[in-house]
Structures
1.
Amino acid sequence: MSLFKINRNGHSFLVIWNKEIPNRLFGEEISISNISIGFDLLKDDSDFVIILAELTWNSKKYSDFYGFDIACELRLKHRILAPIIMVSFLPENFFNGDTRYNILKARGTSFLQLPFDSDSLDRISKQTRALTPSSLADISVLLLNPRHLIDRFTHDIRYELGHDTLKAKATTILADLPDQFKKSTKWEKLIESLSEKNISEEEFYLRKKAIILKLNTTLLLEGSDPQNTTKYKLLLLEDNLEDAETIRTALNPFYEITNVTNGEDAIRIIDEDLENHYCALICDWRLLVPGTDRQQQWQGYEVMEYASKNRFYALFSLTSLDEDSRKYISPYISCTYTPLTKDFEKGNGLWLIYMPIINQKIEENLAVIAGLPTGEGWYKQDKADYKKDASGNKSASKKSFASFHQQYIEKRNSNSFRNWNNEISDLANRMWAYYKKSLSSEPDRSLQDIAAKWGIELNRNVKNVLVIRRLYLALWYSQSRLEITIRISLQERFQAIENPVLNIYSVLRNRYWNDQIANVSSIDIEDIYKKLLSAAKAFVSQLALEPSSLPSGILPEEKAWLNSIGINLKLGNDVDYYGNTSE
């Protein structure tokens, strides 16, 4: 098996073929480049993927049609959305009726029989649309996963079919079960029971439901490996202990779950979660006082509303299978949530279906948190890289790196985030104890620069930036009037600059300008001020803060840290300190 990249008519094609591909298939004036084997290619930005059905690789034969296995792997494992064009020496109808080739039924997949001409390739390319995340999820479950058999059984097996037809159709559907599942249950016996003569319609549908439930618990969705999944922290509010136990049993391998039965306890946990460690809130819709039919003071939908105003949680409501009251209340609820049905008869399989939904909503919220800092430096991905040649001449080029935003998302979305954040808090605590000396009535002029004292540079490490951001925010919200005093030695007079932005810069960078100009014979105060302002702006930009009045876009864990050192974020100097060029 070989991988090739082809550029044709402004489109790029990733071609998966045996050894060499026949150039004539793709017409004239094309460029072909070989790609080393490995599925890191799936990060490629190709417009189309072309796969030979008769791939041979690792002892695979032509008759194995291994290309279809690769196509399914691209969709299911690597979540590729690009259109796939399957090609084969056999006609398309050869692959009808076999579930191994179900991908041909799916949107986003087309077929070409070999040999084809370049015009046919162009026509198919225009007709085949890329998938969306929702359509990929749809075909993954209903076509490319054995669970599509549940859908077929649900829709095709009906009471009015009659004994013989019903038995034949049910046998055909269940014959497509993967081999490892055929022996786990006596499906023939279940089919005989379902197709038994003279049973009532009511009894028929009860027996059909039993088979569907068995299929649900048998055909668990694949790809949920707790070893390779971030164990997000969930808050479960469920007053029924039995229901709560069922949910915990299903989700505990994949999530860290805190379960409470009382709405007031949930509110207390939400209030205490200043760092937004919990990622999702799953709430029973209606909460009763244990052992009674009286409602609790906080109902599930009210807890969700409260959480939406105070934390970045993915919100989910739990409702019973036949409960319709939610539909009447929903228009009056001031938050966005996703309903989950408590159909516990389906067992753990139901929650494995819900897991991708839960994870997607959590990841959407994490993206919102990561987007809070709005300063330009948060998203910047390049910087000037200066080098000198042998003659000493300096040249500049752009050097790319992962933005702070990208680095932060990676950390926030990992199991190590809590420890990583604790390390930031511990270092910020020690540094704050040192730099808050500048807040006294007689500030300590001997404070060292952050780089000299702590060895922290504002390089491309997001951890360093987040530590210094906390110090900056602490100094800003401390409400003390830091002051830089510029001394004009010959005229023996002083000018105080009461600009917090400039003063915070001076404290952390230890650039007290009166020391730097003490021995200068003449000085332009306005010029010195402009230089200081320029340096402070660059510093604030590096910290991904807005160069304006009150700092905006503060992360939840930053707010929690400020709260821990006794600083009130409601205070601060709400003045545009960059609006003027002089004080």
2.
Amino acid sequence: MMDALDRAIANTQAHLDALRNASGHWEGRLSSSALSTATAVVALALVDRERHALPITAGARWLCEHQNVDGGWGDTTLSKSNLSTTLLCWSALHLVAQRPSPTVQSADAWIMGQVGSLEPAAIARAVVSRYGKDKTFSVPILMLCALCGTLGDKPWRHVIALPFELAALPRTWFGAVGLPVVSYALPALIAIGYTRFKNAPPAWWNPLRWLRALTWPRIRPMLQVLQPSSGGYLEATPLTSFVTMALAGGGQLDHPCLPLAVDFLVRSKREDGSWPIDTNLATWGTTLSLRSFYVSAPPKQWLLAQQYREIHPFTNAPPGGWAWTDLPGGVPDADDTSSALIALKKMGHGGDAAIQQGITWLLDLQNRDGGIPTFCRGWGTLPFDRSTPEITAHALCAWWVWHDELSPALQSRIAKATQQALGYLKRVQLQDGSWIPLWFGNEHTQDENNPVYGTAQVVNHLSGSEQLAVVFNALIQTGREYLCGAQKLDGSFGGDRDAPASIEETAVALQALGGVESEKVFSGVEWLLTATREGTHFPPAPIGLYFARLWYHEQLYPVIWTLSALRAAKKVLTQRG
């Protein structure tokens, strides 16, 4: 067993090291996405179908080739069909196809099976029902359907109006006014809100008609201010595509942000005709890789260069944070900032001004409930802006690995913030001992949540500092008890006890089981050794959650987490003989 474990660790480490690029960091590879491909095809077709005929044709062909056998589409080629992605692909093919095809007819049947009919009102109700009060994704979906002609003769009556005029308010007010979209979707609020207004304005006597008409000249330039030099909002194909098609559909083809956005979409297309969900997760992947093993030439200066030194125009975030990518469309967030700080500590970096600024950035982000949100403090009305347990635990780990090298003032702030975070984590822990994460889900659980991943990562982060582990020992133990109960008979883990097993979920759970009986660790190691062929085979699973219930998988995740799990398991098994 130990010989096989040693071989797997060496193989996995070599595999991960080989995935580094020429600059010494990791870019990874995100899954191709039917949703991204559909939105890009529609955006390019509405801007200039003739000029962009080649990528449009290639994208449509890819969609046809990757339709699921049931007639629908999932977010990745490994995903089961879902209504949102199927509606987008179905509508895109309606727009660009020369004539009805078997692909579209199969999608017709799948949608009818899910919705009950192809009536626009029924489709709109089903989409809104899926996302509830969060309009971040439901409104863009319905807008795309309207632009493609799949919502009937009067399509815009089914597209909910967005109050784009609120973008004219001071950014510090956004948390209080309760925007119907999450903080990172501000360009969508503006562009989609305008095109819906343009195509279906309120009655002439409604004050909103005049307010929106008067505020548009002031708000219109904001889309260019918010646009990064790459042209891609958040470096994400869906968001960039939605903004692009909204402007085209609203008669704004002369908008100055369109050339860059279109160029981003054209450059983002892959050789097979598909588009990924985002360009890369380079900073995130690099920090996770550096934390999993020692490399001889860690890209410390590269990582330090990714820290934001100015107020971010997108979320108004102060300097000090890190984003998920090294590209200009990134936005600083708590998870990546925590991971960067922990990675720098592992690499032996000193507690200089950059570290103190990063720690302060995280402390300032803490919500009144004691938890840590992803992007913006106080934006708690929608799911993707609320506090979340796995990111809260991650921030705690970042604070405490640096605690002893910080000023007395920061140490005092950390002590107070830790107690508030402890209260939050106690409140949101479920009765069975689990925590539900925000940014990772599982398509195969009943509610699409992932308590195994969430619980494992809370335990892993809280165990990342000896001082922290003492304070949170009771929570760590209850989390491990949940994981023991969620482990399958063969030693593996899925999103919950009933969901199919994955390398990713098994690895993060196995790492968290460092304090339980060795039999649990032993059976998990055996499964992981078999599944990865002793560290040489890493098929990914779509457990990442991006935007609103939008799945992806990432090449690096199974490799990084397997390496961390195997190294932790070796330590446990060695200690216990």
